[in-house]
Design brief:
Structural class of chain B: alpha+beta
Strand order of the largest sheet of chain B: 2-1-5-3-4
Distance between the termini of chain B: 38 Å
CATH class of the largest domain in chain A: Alpha Beta
CATH class of chain B: Alpha Beta
CATH topology of the largest domain in chain A: Aldehyde Ferredoxin Oxidoreductase,  A, domain 1
CATH architecture of the largest domain in chain A: 4-Layer Sandwich
CATH superfamily of chain B: Beta-grasp domain
Number of domains of chain B: 1
Order of helices and strands of chain B: EHEHEEE
CATH architecture of chain B: Roll
CATH topology of chain B: Ubiquitin-like (UB roll)
Number of strands of chain A: 17
Radius of gyration of chain B: 11 Å
Number of helices of chain B: 2
CATH superfamily of the largest domain in chain A: Aldehyde ferredoxin oxidoreductase, N-terminal domain
Oligomer: heterodimer
Largest sheet of chain A: 6 strands, mixed
Radius of gyration of chain A: 22 Å
Chain lengths: 607, 74
């Protein structure tokens, strides 16, 4: 089948068996790959009510038709599962080189199911596929394990590995790869840990069949040329995502002290150019990338090296904790990566704990003696370690802010910054109604990458609540995650502003299937509806209440910064949801109507 | 001699698809962007003669100014 490896690898950890199944042409046509394959298998194969950390849950790793191809950004793979953090849908996108090797081994998806009786790693070298003992690796840090595999097997093997966070089933444990890339959110690392899989190592040498080689070369070259000709290439490459730190600070979107404000008085010390000057030593890209956004840093203060920090980590481990030292943020980044926990959720949880401490809800008796004032770097480092090991006070924070605040009470639920149990990522949304709606309705919880609508707020008026904003959010939600379906990176479109139409001939040449963005947006819409149906299937009473944001964004206006005194009204939040559900073809409680399911051709999938 | 402003990506659409436009000296970058119909808040980075500047930088004759927008996001 053109454009595909042609095989799904099923790994039954309970029995220790590995089997291959052909990739279905129908599934390939309708769901394309990546997170499309992920939601398809999740709905079909994971039974209703499965424990996210039990044998019935599955971890579905999928490449897409542009993964491993000479297409800018073709280095992404998707990790889908039922999320231990939220009890709903999780889909985490990981860059690097893993997905390319998967494809060269002939694999479109790897499905991990069951639970191994002992720690193992999955070894894939083309058709040699084995589960091997990993007892000696259990308990080891991610960088140590990756280095060990590279030295033992060779640089061409790509490694995805969990840290002690995943082993300890921290609900926001991540999966690490390429010394600094992660499948970060929702707890995919905990699911891998629950299955006792320490790592997956993969290497392949096969070719991917292409429908029209000349057209593929031509379309690939056109994409690379567009990137090369982009006015923004130089600066995006120089700074990567850290370009937006100063901008977020300026417009009041930089989370500050647990999202109590959107501008940080010491934010300048965290800006991209400061970081570049102070710690960055080189740029680091994923497979086939013409605009490497990864920044590799040498941290003299802590005598360490780390990939990053990226914008999200600067926001969550910097300003959100009142920390203005980029080297401290880089070190927090390194600790999280090495221990295998998500920097966004961890930074959010520590910010919540610091606010509890400053409000007197926690004292040193609760915090294992830590003086948890905002800005305390050493306490932050200690807490990261305690969270990953679920030790002492860290055990509470490891549960995520929704569960932790419910346990603690005393009003702390009101400043637990999350939606659907996922900690909000690094955009403060006191007065940015499109971005707030994007967080409220995101299909994994409060994550930014499905619909980054904050500039649309600025363009049309940030406090405006109009149907056009809702339509924009929906368009972005249908379209942007299509990069996670195709197995590619959205940043060339996002950052360099290349024309998305350039991807269509490339996709057609690779797969031989005629496509248009109208058609691809429709695939995105179908996937979006399926993820919603998964949430509803797995959670009794799922509906509108699950889409509500933290009260902080409609009850407490920031006391300083660019958004001082600005807040979104609760009635406007409800109006946004009303418009959103109507435009989506959902009920007033936020569930896809039968006619919507029918019109999208999804009846058979959800039957 | 006027200065040259080079908008990136989608900002070009706002200025009629032009790769560069001639702008007057003596005004700030912020004022200049607004006059061109670009909402200054969507611009994340201003580089003048290969040095990063703020939007309050007053444009000098002969400057070459690159402005990067954050349209799609992270």
């Amino acid at each position: 089948m053109n454009g595909y490896g042609g095989r799904i690898l099923r790994v039954n950890l309970t029995n220790g068996t590995v089997t291959k199944e052909p990739t279905s042409p129908d599934v390939a046509r309708n769901f394309i790959g990546g997170r499309g394959f992920g939601i398809y298998f999740l709905l079909k194969e994971v039974p209703k009510g499965a424990d996210p950390l039990g044998p019935e849950n599955k971890l579905i790793i999928s490449s897409g038709p542009i993964s491993g191809m000479m297409i800018p950004g073709g280095g992404k793979c998707d990790w889908t599962t039922k999320a231990p953090l939220t009890g709903g849908y999780a889909s985490a996108s990981m860059g690097g080189h893993f997905t390319a090797e998967m494809r060269y081994a002939g694999l479109d998806s790897i499905i991990l199911e069951g639970i191994s009786p002992k720690p193992v790693y999955l070894f894939i070298d083309d058709d040699k596929i084995e589960l091997r003992d990993a007892s000696d690796l259990w308990g080891k840090a991610t960088f140590t394990v990756e280095k060990q595999f590279k030295e033992k097997l060779g640089e061409e093997f790509q490694v995805a590995v969990i840290g002690v966070g995943g082993e300890n089933l921290v609900p926001y444990a991540c999966i690490n790869h390429d010394y600094g890339r992660q499948a970060g959110r929702g707890g995919v690392g905990a699911v891998m840990g629950s299955k006792k899989v320490k790592a997956i190592v993969v290497h392949g040498t096969k070719s991917i069949p292409v429908a029209d080689m000349d057209a593929y070369r031509k379309a690939g070259m056109a994409l690379y040329k567009a990137c090369k000709d982009s006015e923004g290439l130089k600066d995006w490459t120089r700074y990567g995502t850290t370009i937006v730190v100063s901008w977020c600070d300026e417009v009041g979107a930089l989370p500050t002290r647990n999202f109590s404000a959107g501008s940080f008085e010491d934010g300048k010390n965290l800006y991209g150019p400061v970081m570049r000057e102070k710690i960055v030593i080189t740029d680091k890209g994923c497979f086939g990338c013409p605009s490497p956004c990864g920044k590799y840093s040498r941290n003299k203060k802590y005598n360490s090296y780390v990939e990053g920090p990226e914008y999200e980590t600067i926001g969550m481990m910097g300003s959100n904790l009142g920390i203005d030292d980029i080297e401290a943020v880089a070190q927090a980044n390194l600790l999280c990566d090495d221990l295998g926990i998500d920097t966004i959720s961890a930074g959010n949880a520590i910010g919540w704990a610091m606010e509890c401490y400053e409000k007197g809800i926690f004292t040193k008796k609760d915090t294992d003696g830590l003086d948890l004032k905002f800005g305390n770097v050493e306490a932050t480092f200690t807490l990261i370690e305690k969270i990953a090991r679920r030790e002492g006070f860290g055990a509470l924070l490891s549960e995520g802010v929704k569960r932790a605040s419910k346990k603690v009470g005393k009003g702390s639920e009101k400043f637990a910054i999350q939606v659907k149990g996922m900690e909000q990522s690094a955009y403060a949304t006191h007065n940015a109604t499109a971005m707030l709606l994007a967080y409220m309705t995101c299909d994994v919880g409060a994550h930014h990458n499905r619909a980054w609508a904050i500039t649309y707020d600025l363009q049309v008026g940030r406090e405006k609540v109009v149907p056009e904003k809702v339509a924009r959010v929906i368009w972005l939600q249908n379209f942007r995650p299509m990069f996670d379906v195709l197995g590619g990176c959205r940043l060339q479109w996002v950052e360099l502003g290349i024309d998305r139409d350039l991807y269509v001939p490339a996709l057609e040449a690779i797969t031989g299937i005629q496509r248009s963005w109208e058609d691809l947006d429709k695939v995105g819409e179908r996937i979006w509806n399926l993820t919603r149906l998964f949430w509803a299937r797995e959670n009794e009473g799922f509906g509108r209440a699950w889409d509500m944001p933290s009260p902080r964004f409609y009850e407490e206006a920031p006391k300083s910064g660019a958004t001082k005194g600005q807040i979104t009204k609760l009635e406007d939040i409800n109006r946004l949801l009303d418009m959103y559900y109507e435009q989506r073809g959902w009920t007033s409680d936020g569930l896809p109507k039968p006619e919507t399911i029918e019109s999208l051709g999804l009846k058979a999938v959800v039957a | 001699m006027p200065a040259t402003l080079r908008p990136s990506g989608s900002l070009r659409d706002v200025v009629g698809g032009q790769a560069e436009v001639q702008v007057e000296a003596g005004r700030t970058v912020r004022e200049t962007l607004a006059a061109l119909g670009i909402v200054p808040e969507v611009v994340a980075l201003v580089v003048v003669n290969e040095e990063q500047r703020s939007k309050d930088y007053v444009i000098q004759e002969g400057d070459v100014i690159r402005v990067l927008a954050v349209i799609g996001g992270g």
